[in-house]
Please model this.
Amino acid sequence: MHPDHSPHAPAERAVEVHQPTPMTPAVPMAAPLVPIQPGTVPAVASVVLPDGRVVTGYAIEPAKPQPVAAKPAVSRTAVNVALGGVGFLAVCGGLLLLTTFIAALAALVQQLIILAAVIFGGWIAVQVFSGRGHGEGETTVNIRKAVIKRNHFHS
Model:
């Protein structure tokens, strides 16, 4: 026996496919004709199943979305005012950045001037207070050797 409890192998069994056969809707003869608005009553469809049963039902139409209401147009004046506001903010931001840049540049120049003054002043101080070079009218006192030179010219 096979797993599906049939005496034949699955390939040996005949496969039978049944297609439903649509039937035309029945038209009652005895019913009086009543005027109905077209499209209010959906069409009835009947289908005969392979075992002989008849299934009757209404055809379902897909739901149609409601049309979207058209948006009111934005006035040109409103668009121009909005763009003008954005442009004004951009100009203000640019001026703020420009002012900041100029202030930073001025501070840098000031710092460079102070640095140059300190370096040049230090160089002048070294020249004034250093003992290098003996010129006319200078006095050199060397305490260790106890040598005092006054107006001594080296040639």
Observations:
- The longest helix spans residues 76-129.
- The radius of gyration is 55 Å.
- The longest strand covers residues 44-48.
